[in-house]
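Input (structure):
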């Protein structure tokens, strides 16, 4: 007696067909289109970066640039890249919201 005979194969395939059929009947097609959790997570990141936490980090970066400038070890490329980075972080959300059709 072998495990792979016609009767066992028929039972296995009928069980697989039943499971696939029941899952297709019970799953709602709109579940694949809900991005509520991801949208909330990414929106939280944007609010954190552009909110009080982002403002505090940007202020610390500008203070660090001022301190380095005060001590005479200023690297202008670093200072300009920090300033441009701050402008991109705080201007990015408003730029993208201006592009969307709301």
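Output (sequence):
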């Amino acid at each position: 007696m072998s495990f792979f005979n016609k009767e066992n194969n028929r039972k296995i395939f009928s069980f697989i067909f039943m499971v696939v059929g029941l899952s297709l009947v019970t799953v709602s097609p709109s579940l694949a289109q809900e991005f509520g959790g991801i949208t909330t997570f990414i929106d939280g990141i944007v609010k954190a970066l552009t909110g009080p936490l982002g403002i505090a980090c940007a202020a610390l970066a500008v203070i660090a640039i001022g301190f380095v400038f005060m001590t005479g070890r200023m690297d202008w490329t670093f200072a300009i890249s920090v300033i441009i980075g701050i402008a991109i972080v705080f201007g990015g959300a408003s730029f993208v919201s201006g592009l969307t059709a709301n």
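Notes: The radius of gyration is 29 Å. The CA atoms of residues 50 and 91 lie 9 Å apart.
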